[in-house]
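Researcher: Re-running this chain for the archive, since the previous output was lost when a drive failed. Same request as before.
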Amino acid sequence: MTRGRRPSPQTIAVLQALAADPSRSRYGYELGQEVGLKAGSLYPILIRLTDRGLLDASWETDPPAGRPPRHLYRLTDAGVAAAAELARTAAKPVQATRTELRGAW
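Model: Regenerated structure tokens:
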């Protein structure tokens, strides 16, 4: 992630869900069901991640008859790296806080 601010727990959940199989494209509805986010929270996250180059978004090429095409989302190489970095550092802040608290008592 290029920003200095840590991503929200919701953004982390979306990245982790996509990182479980980075080569697979996923529908927004499917992701929302998996991470427990409604459309009003999920789609702004997907748009931000796409704008930052962490996701590729594309339209479904062959939708079934009578249904409009859906967006598909997949991690880019930068997104895979960002998800790996988040997974690697996820426990660090908690560990530091516990250590600091022990020293304060």
